[in-house]
Every structure is written in C-alpha cells, then in structure tokens.
Amino acid sequence: MTRRIRLGMVGGGNDAFIGGVHRIASRIDDRYELVAGALSSTPEKAQASGEALGLPRIYDDFKQMAIREARLKEGIEAVAIVTPNHVHYAAAREFLKRGIHVICDKPLTSTLADAKKLAKAAEQSDALFVLTHNYTGYPMVRQAREMVANGEIGKIRVVQVEYPQDWLTNHEEFKQAEWRTDPARSGAGGSTGDIGTHAHNLARFITGLEVESLAADLDAFVPGRQVDDNGHVMLRFAGGAKGMLWCSQVAPGNENALRIRVYGETGGLEWAQEDPNYLWHTPFGEPKRLITRNGAGAGDAAARLSRIPPGHPEGYLEGFANIYSEAAEAIEAKRNGKPLPPGVVYPTIEDGLRGVEFIDACVRSSARNAAWVKL
Amino acid sequence: MTRRIRLGMVGGGNDAFIGGVHRIASRIDDRYELVAGALSSTPEKAQASGEALGLPRIYDDFKQMAIREARLKEGIEAVAIVTPNHVHYAAAREFLKRGIHVICDKPLTSTLADAKKLAKAAEQSDALFVLTHNYTGYPMVRQAREMVANGEIGKIRVVQVEYPQDWLTNHEEFKQAEWRTDPARSGAGGSTGDIGTHAHNLARFITGLEVESLAADLDAFVPGRQVDDNGHVMLRFAGGAKGMLWCSQVAPGNENALRIRVYGETGGLEWAQEDPNYLWHTPFGEPKRLITRNGAGAGDAAARLSRIPPGHPEGYLEGFANIYSEAAEAIEAKRNGKPLPPGVVYPTIEDGLRGVEFIDACVRSSARNAAWVKL
Amino acid sequence: MTRRIRLGMVGGGNDAFIGGVHRIASRIDDRYELVAGALSSTPEKAQASGEALGLPRIYDDFKQMAIREARLKEGIEAVAIVTPNHVHYAAAREFLKRGIHVICDKPLTSTLADAKKLAKAAEQSDALFVLTHNYTGYPMVRQAREMVANGEIGKIRVVQVEYPQDWLTNHEEFKQAEWRTDPARSGAGGSTGDIGTHAHNLARFITGLEVESLAADLDAFVPGRQVDDNGHVMLRFAGGAKGMLWCSQVAPGNENALRIRVYGETGGLEWAQEDPNYLWHTPFGEPKRLITRNGAGAGDAAARLSRIPPGHPEGYLEGFANIYSEAAEAIEAKRNGKPLPPGVVYPTIEDGLRGVEFIDACVRSSARNAAWVKL
Amino acid sequence: MTRRIRLGMVGGGNDAFIGGVHRIASRIDDRYELVAGALSSTPEKAQASGEALGLPRIYDDFKQMAIREARLKEGIEAVAIVTPNHVHYAAAREFLKRGIHVICDKPLTSTLADAKKLAKAAEQSDALFVLTHNYTGYPMVRQAREMVANGEIGKIRVVQVEYPQDWLTNHEEFKQAEWRTDPARSGAGGSTGDIGTHAHNLARFITGLEVESLAADLDAFVPGRQVDDNGHVMLRFAGGAKGMLWCSQVAPGNENALRIRVYGETGGLEWAQEDPNYLWHTPFGEPKRLITRNGAGAGDAAARLSRIPPGHPEGYLEGFANIYSEAAEAIEAKRNGKPLPPGVVYPTIEDGLRGVEFIDACVRSSARNAAWVKL
Hints:
4 copies of one chain form a homotetramer.
Chain A: E1 5-10, H1 18-28, E2 32-38, H2 43-52, E3 57-58, H3 62-71, E4 78-81, H4 85-96, E5 101-104, H5 112-124, E6 129-131, H6 139-149, E7 156-164, H7 175-180, H8 183-186, H9 191-207, E8 211-219, E9 230-237, E10 242-248, E11 259-264, E12 267-272, E13 278-283, E14 288-292, H10 300-304, H11 316-335, H12 349-367, E15 373-374
Parallel strand pairs in A: 1-2, 1-4, 2-3, 4-5, 5-6, 7-10
Antiparallel strand pairs in A: 7-11, 8-9, 8-15, 9-10, 11-12, 12-13, 13-14
Helix pairs in contact in A: 1-11, 4-5, 5-12, 6-9, 9-12
C-alpha cells in the first residue's frame, strides 16, 4: 500500500460544481487525501466551505496556503485548482514556484498572455503540471488513441468533432452561467473556451495531430451575451487532414454531447461522451464493429484505466478519476525518483497552452469575418 | 380511378442504378405507366435496355423521342430524365419546349450556365419541372418542415447538416463512380454535387431558409481524383442563422448517412436518412420526444405521404415514390385545369438552380482558400 | 421481359388495410398485373371497391370469380386472398381446386380443422400455395437464416422472440380491431393469432427448428375482450433449444416491435423489424458486428432480395414485395416447367399449418393453467 | 461534516472482483472509512490482502473480527460481507448478534433454510441489514419506481425483465466462474441465483408488485455444468399482472444486459442497465419520451441519488455507491436516534429472503417440468 498523496484544493467551495467532481475523482482510486483548502474567494466562505468538508487545514486564500503548506513537513504534495479561469494563472504560479504539483482545471488561463507565462513558470518548476482535460481519461478514448497510433484506420483524412449543449439557450442568471459568460473571468471565448477547448483537445489527443490553422464563425445568439455561445470552426491539421469543430450552448436537446469521428484511409472511429463505454470501429469494407470497454477487441490502453467488467458502465467520474490516477502515477514516480511507468498519459501545460491558443485563434478569426488564421 | 400518367424515360439503361429506382418509385402508387424510353447513350444499348423492360416504344435518343412522342395522340405526358448530370440540360430542354412535363434527377445540370438556361426554358414552358431531391419525400422530413413552419422550435439559430458516405474511399473503377468523378460529366463538384446538394436542399426544405453566403474547404483525398471527395462548408443563412454542412465520400463506415439537426430558440429537431421513420423533437426544458411516422404526435404533412401504420418502416423507395406522387398530383391538376391541391410540394427548377449555385459557390470559395462567397 | 402474372384479389376493399399493402407489394417488382377482384363481402361494396381501383373484371364474390376466371383463356393465374381469417379456407379451396395459385394472408385459417382441410386441398392441387408471412421477406432475415444454416453461430441454444404492439391498449371500435378481436372471424387466438404466429414463424424460419412443445399463459387484459391480447409462451424446440415468445397488443410504446435474438454455442444474432436493414452478429469473444443490408458482410441470400445500395433503407413494403417476387419465381418456373431457381424460398401451406397448430397449442395450454402441450 | 462510518470487510481479497467494487462504492461519497478486514478464507491470504490495502486492523477470519471489533471502543460500526454466497449466513450472523450493521452482497444466502434463519437473526438484532441489490441504486431506476408509484403508467399489466450475459458460454476455469457454478458455494441456482435474482428484485422494486407464482424452465447448456446457465421464467404477480423473466450466462454478445420493461394501462417504461442514464416513458397515444438523469422530466427520487448534471453519465459504481449512501443515511439516523429521512430506500433482509425464495421456486418448478409453483 503506497502512502496517499496529500492534496490541497483552491476553489470548489459550497456552491461550486466542479470542485465536488474533483474531490470524488481524487477519492475513487484512493490515492489522494484531501488535507488542506482555500475553497473560496473570501476568507469567510473559504472557512465555511472548508469546515463543511472537515478539512484539517483551512486557509483564507491560495497564496497563504501555498506559503504555509510549503513550510510544513507533511504539507500538501499537490494542489487542485478549480476556480474560475481567470484565477488559474496566479494560483498555479504560487504552487509551482514552491515545488507543489498542480492539478488544474481547464482552460489553462483566461488569456493567452497568462497561458504563456504559466507555461514558462511550469517549465522552471520541478513540480508537475496536470490539466484536467478529463475526457481524455475515458478508457474508450484511450482505445481510440491506441488504435490510431497502431495504424488501424490508416493515415487520417477527416476529423469531425462537436460539443453541443443547451443549458445557455436562454439568458440564465445562475452561478455556473454567470462567470462562464463574463469575459473578464472566463476569457474571450464563451462556448469555445468552456467546451470548444475540450473538443479541440480530444481531437488532438486521439489523432496525435495538431491544428495548424482554423476559420471560426462565432455567435452570441442570446441577446446581451458578451461571449460566443455557438462556434463553427473549420480546421486544417498539420499533415493535411481536415476537420470541423462545432461547439454550442444553445442547441436544445443536447446535454453534454461531445462526440468525435475520425476517418482514415482504411477505417473510421466514432465515440460519444454520453455513451462512453462504446467505440465504433468501421474498417472500410467490413461490418461495423462495436467495441466495449473491457470487452472483446479492447486493448491495453483502455484496460489500464478500467475498473470493472464490460457491460457495467463506467462514467464521467471514473474518467475524471483516471486523470487523477495518472497524475498519481506521475507524482509517485517523481517521489521515488523513477521514470514515468509505460502507458501513463495525462494532459500537460503544453496541452493547456494549445487550448488557449485555440480559443485565441477562434476569437481572432471570427473578428476578421472568419478568415483563416494560424495557431 | 384516374387514368395513369403516360411516362417516358431518358437514361436508366441496363447498367445504371438510379433508373431502376425511378421506375419502382413511379410504380408504387400506380399513377404512372412507363410507355417509352431512350434509355442509353447509344442506339444499340438504348434498344436492348428498352426491350429488356418490355417498353412499347423504344427510341435511339432523347431528341427523337421528344419529337415523336409530342406528335402522338397518346404520347407521353411526362418524362423522367435519369442520365448523368451533363445531359440533363439538353434533354430537359427538348421536352419542355414540347410541353412535356419533366421529372429530372439532381443536380439540375453540370454547370451553372446550363442551370440558368434551363430555368429560363422551364419558365417559358407550360410544362411542369420536377427535380427528384427525393429526400424531401420522406414523411418525417415533411413533419420536420411542418413543425418549423408552425413555430414549434422557434426562430432558427443553428443548422447542422451532413451527408457522409464511404464508397469512394479508394480509387474505384466501377461505372457509378466513373462518371461521378469526371468533372466533364458530373460538373465541377464531386461530393458537393452528388450529395452536398442533397444536404443543402434538405436544410432549405426543412427550415425554409436560404443560404446567403458560405465558406467551403474542399478536398480530393484520393490521389488523382479530379473532383472533391470531401467538403467542409460553413453556412450563413438569410435572417442570421448559421450552419455547417459536411459531405464526404471517403468516411469509412458511412453508407448514406444524411443527417440534419436544426436548433431554434425553443427547441431542436433531428432526422437521419438511414432511420427515416423517426424524428427527434427536443423542446427546451422538456424530455426528448421521439415522433414516429404515423405515430402519436405526427401531423398532417407526414400523414399525407404515409402508406402504412407506424412501426412498419417505409424506406427510400417510398420516399422517392412520394416525389412521383406529388408530381402526379400536380400533373393531374394541370390536366384538369385545377389548382394544386393543398399540401402538395415538390422540388422545382428553382430548387435545382439553388443547388447548382451552391455547388458553384463551394468550388469558387475553395479555390480562394475557403473565403466567404455569396450565393 | 417476362409476361406479367395475371392476378386476382379476394378481399381488400375500400376500408381494408392489408389489401392495399398486397397491391403495392405486387407492383413493386412489376411481375404482376391485377386484373380481377371480389374485394368485399357484399356485391355492392365489391363493385364499388373494384371500380375505385379500375379493375378490368369485378365479381360479386370469390366463388363466382374462381369459376369464371378458370374458364377464361386469359384468366387469372394467381389470386391474393386478403380477407379476415375465417374466409381464407373457403376462398382458397375454390381457387386451388381450379388450379389457380393462391397467395394467402396469415394466419392460414381461423380453426385447426380448416387448416388441415386446406393443407389437404393444397396437396391435391397442382397450384402453388404461398402464405404471406411477410417478415420472412426482409433481406436481413434471409441473412440471419443463411448465417444459422452456415453454422456461423453454432448449435442453437436459446431463441428469444417477441412481437409487442400497443394499438389495442384500450377497447377500440375501429374496423381493424373489430374482426381481429372476434373469435368467430379471427379464430381462438387474439394476439397469438395475429402477431404471435408471425413471431413463431420467424423463429422457425431463421433457426430451422420446430417447436415441439410449449406452455402459454394468455391474458385478455382489456375488460370484455374475447380473445387474448397478451401471450407469454415458453418454447421447447426439437433438438434441445429453448425459447420464449411474447406477443402483446397492450404494451404502450410498441408499434410493431417484432424482434428476435438467437444464441448458439459460438455466437448470437439479433434483428428488429422496425429497423430492418440491420443485423447484429455477436461472435463470442469478438467485437459486436453490425451488418447492414447490401453492406459489408452481407451474403447472397440477402443480396438476392435487395434492390438498392446500403444506407438507403428498404422497408416493410419491399419485404412484402419480396414474398410476391419469390412467388413469381415459383409461378414462372411452374409455367415454364422448370425447377424452382436456387435460393427461392417462400412460406408454404406447411408453414401455415404449423402456425395454426401454434395458436391452437397456445389456447389449449392456457386453458390448462399454462401446462406444457405438444404441437 | 459528519464523522465517517467505520467499516469492516469480510471477503474481497486480492483476487476477488466484487470486494473492490464495494470499496470504491463506499468511498465515492466519503461517508465510510475502511478500518478492518478479514478479506480471505485463509489467514495467510487474509493477512496479505489486508496489508495490500493498508488496513489498520487485519483479522484471520470473520468470527475473530466480529468478536474483537465489538469490544473496541472505536470498533467498526458496519461490515461489508462480500464472500461467496454460502458464507453470507454464518458471517452475517456473527455481526448481527453483536449489533454491527451488515451490508451484504446478494443473493442473501445459498439455501432457503439459511435465508430464513438469517431473516430471524436480523429481526432479533438491533443492527441494520442492507443487501446490495445495487441496481436499485441507479437514479433512473428510482425514477421508474417513482413514476409507477405516482400512477404515471396506470395499473400494471405486463412486466418483461431479463438479464442475459455471455461470460459462461464455454466451460471456463477462472475463479469468478468457479464458485458461481458450484452449487455448494453458490446455491442451487446458477444464472437464476447470480443474475435472475437481480432481475426479480428489480421488477419488484420498480413495480411494487410481488411474484405470487412462477413456472421456470432452467437449463445447463454447457456440458458438465451443475447449475443452470439459462432460465426461462413466466411470472404471475399479486393483483393480476403477468411477466416474463429471462436470465442467461450463455447468450453471446450480452455483457450485463439487464433490462426491464413495464406496461400499465396508460403507459410504459423501459430501462437498460448498460445505458443507465436514460429512461423511456411511453404514455399511450403520445410521442415516446426519453428522460435523462437529472434532465427535464426527472423527479426528486432520481435527483436525490444524482451527483452530476445530465449528459455526464454516472455508472455502475455510482449506482452501487448510492446503496452505500442510503445505508449511511440509515446508519447515521440510527446513530442519532432519528427516523430514516424521507426518500431513503435500500434493499433489506426481506428483499433478500424474497430473492432466495425466487431461486428456490425456480429450481422446484424446473424439477417438476416447469410446473407452476407458489413462492
């Protein structure tokens, strides 16, 4: 039994959504122990939220936490940053410079300038930086990535990726919506930043291809909205593949309908986040095949991140937990001075920078009548 | 019992595909009688194909047929033109100018110039012109159109339409592929012309919106191919709606996966050609609803074109037959000097012209690095 | 071009449902010509219905039609019998004894005694007897049958077949319901006779196995209903396979949800009538495979009965037409003194007799507290 | 922050499957702390397994654990029993008689005699008894139950429930299969005991109806197998509803395909375990409705057990965790002398007894040629 990793948390107070998800994700495989937190933006709320969770050490703010934990003999080894986007940079920097590993929510930052500075800070730190592009933790996403890498669909020609939602169809006044539609806190991208980055990252993760240029037509359909709530994007990948990316928060009937289809010279793959235990593989000229998590035809990459037999669905929280467990593998390897075990993969600062570049490019393109721009 | 409409056919000889489809479609509702044909491009083949079908009157070519049938007392009242695209214009013109109704396969013509001339010819003729954009004949497509018109999803914001196939994934040498990948016969658009036009037409038909401008990134992924086999298109509709259109012939696992999703201010609709008896309706804030052909929630527009009870699927041929039967309604109304009965709708020369404009715009845009072009 | 088969029809007048289906089915492949009819149970209605269809020869009743047509030089070669069940026997007998081929709706008769007499009459006649168990005409049902015969799923262990509907959930007073719930006209079985026989026949057709004994628990859930509207049946097949059959007319949400699953020692098959262009094949220990009509992995038996490429769905009417076209193959072979072409299969009087035995056994079993009875 | 419940575990050692599931389930909502275990049937393995988990207190066997923990001031408050079935009774008894709450895997026991004795032991104990019929923890199962209770589908007529798997299609020699096919350890039922009980329990849970009598045709298709691997069961419920239950371990292509359909006088419901975030509701005469977890149309019963927004799937582990959290609610209420909070429901000893009666009735019926037997 390896000792659990001592974890702190910034953000994720009482009325936040994603903080609770991170906490469950960190618990599922029992490799973390949450021991400290600065859970809210005011000392009072931070205190109340910390007490509600029974946290051993509660701080007024992230800076205080970083300073004090770094001095403790048994201080936190890693911190989860789950605040609104505009806080990511300042918070992450404090921990990185003190050698505390950072597990940070996406997008990396609210501006490209911050993203670049943070990338530099991460480079200069000995600590790890893990970005929770959680959908890369789904076993069948790993399966897809492995199949592409193994050449099972041949050279890629076309990538269709989309992430429609409907929760912002109307003008809503609840907290989750509030900061996500405020450019000062979420960044210049609305749907592009919140979910388009997930789609972009998923496409990169599965195909191993980088977007070289894009043309984006962004809209804010709801009157008064300051950031895009719908994004239509055409993609050109290095190496010649082409793609389309659609993200929307105003598509009634869609909950979190992230879906990707990849077509190569000899076959296709299709995966949908809402039914994540399935992967369609369509080798050209053969019957369609439905591969299931841990079922026949699923390979090592998926099996590594799978807990239970096929037909017993694993979901969003398990996928999220896989990011935490991959991070634990990396943290423990580092702790023990060992190399990263084979197969361990997690989204890095580099992926975060690419994501913010994607948002920036979408906004730039759209401002120029959806002209093609380079990333 | 109304007398059957005497029908001729141009094209559709022994080794053609779509001719047989037209013949079945014309038979299903028993409103046509095929009595004459010029079924192939050489007199020998035309003769042999006509005999194989037991046609009463067989002609060497369409011009001969048009001239002679026009003189007969009981000559054909309508002609189905099912040749490769580049023949449509010349053939249709001959019949139109002799007052014989034309039922013509899509796209209208292989060039925009031809399309405009044919539109003029149709305008000057007393005969009807029906374009077999057959997917508009599916009952649940009519249902979708009716629901949009009735305001059931509110003002439209987003239209996602796609038509992927995989049959041209490799370089193939069979007849269907041959003329469709030859710009001299199919026109400048490959996938855009053959299937992109269907997608474009379907979007127009259901939403009632016209595409004002588009940006198209077209590719010919198969080496040596002279026309596009994949098209990525961003759409801007009059009135402010935005859309994406994807057509592909190189997407392994896709057969005829035409699919459309329409999102308005209060709800969404989704229909897929391969499962055509279903229509998803997703009113915002209510459970998703699956409407079935002739089932609960389906309205008059779908019922008009439905033959059998819900749960007994009607398919492609019945949808195609609906175009023929709508045409029969129009022809009979004309024959009897009566107005078109309420509810009767079929694709016209105008739709054909729009389709060729769409192809032309895609090709123009792509040639200019996918810049926005007006239609 | 082979001369069309001259066809007559008994039943199928103005307000009937299934007659129209038979007429379309006979037209789709252009191998029949409907030239005579006795379409209703009263001379007046028969006359009116015949005129509405523009029939050349209209008769007051089936006996008159059989007598006169048999004497004509160009009289009908085949007759479609599409009346309520209790008329099948008397009508079919008249044509069989005059050497006119019979295409008869199912179930064969309303009583087992009639079925046995009709089987004898068919045996003594030189004419063919074709029963329209239309679901056996679906290409993917043929595909399933071929795969079982080829041993692709190994020795069969388990057969799950069901046919739920919901149209008789309440007490309804429309014509289709009326005779189907009247034991004098439909026979002793309600749901068992109307749809249970389809399920039973489909299981036999695909697996090649005969039901040896069964235990049936039948219910009439709607107060006052005289025949069963729900049947639960356990099946024991010759050779040791076991099965369950469920038929229901009171299962809200089910339209014509005929579905069969067959499991052998090395794989499984699954087919659903409402999505008939797909067949799941699940070889044990391999990914699930989805075979599509005319798509990769589909074999000769399905291709024989397929008109159009994969992804363009064929439906109920095409499946029904396949029965008519198989019958046409048999009739023409007979006409020309040739053997039945290889691959041609259609439901026979023997299948009809098995079906009525099934209904009879269900009713007998249920009357004895669902005891096991032999067929 | 409420203090975590101190939990022990019996069974669930290194090479067991279900023990790991219980441990994750107990962690997800952070209401338990695993502090003691007797994880295997030999002291050596128990020690090794306990050390691998880093358990504070490791015991050689469950009796030792029960005795010592009961004496500790901070001893376990609850124990999870996750051994093979034949050990449940003896183990549970030891804890119940010392007032330690029992969370026990299903089926309750391997014999009906044991089940009755255990029911008596539970009755005489002050401790709670929770049976992990985990599928009742899925939010959409709660939704279905709530809808039935609210009369949304009317009086129930028909229940179709099934649980097919394929993992025992061949004779397998791995550990999970070994004890499950040994009547001495699993009990007289094979598939009926392992998964048929889940189906039976799910039907009871959702409908609120009890099975009064059944007729079961059980088979052991794999040569040499000593317990059934396929069960066909007809059900008669108190109050007149009828049902069918199918369980199988030899149905290739089925992983854990538990599925239930319930039909009442005014509507239907359908739920499938492999896609657990969806519930079909089919009110008669209205379009089908797809209700999603936490989505529109989902009610309080589902929301109580839901952690994340719609479209982010929760799976098997979250459903299992819900049983643990319901148990935690009950344990904490007991701890604080408070009544069970409204809405809290978990499977009890009574459900366990019903399950073993179901297995016993299936075996009895099958031995008598599938005669009807009372439960």
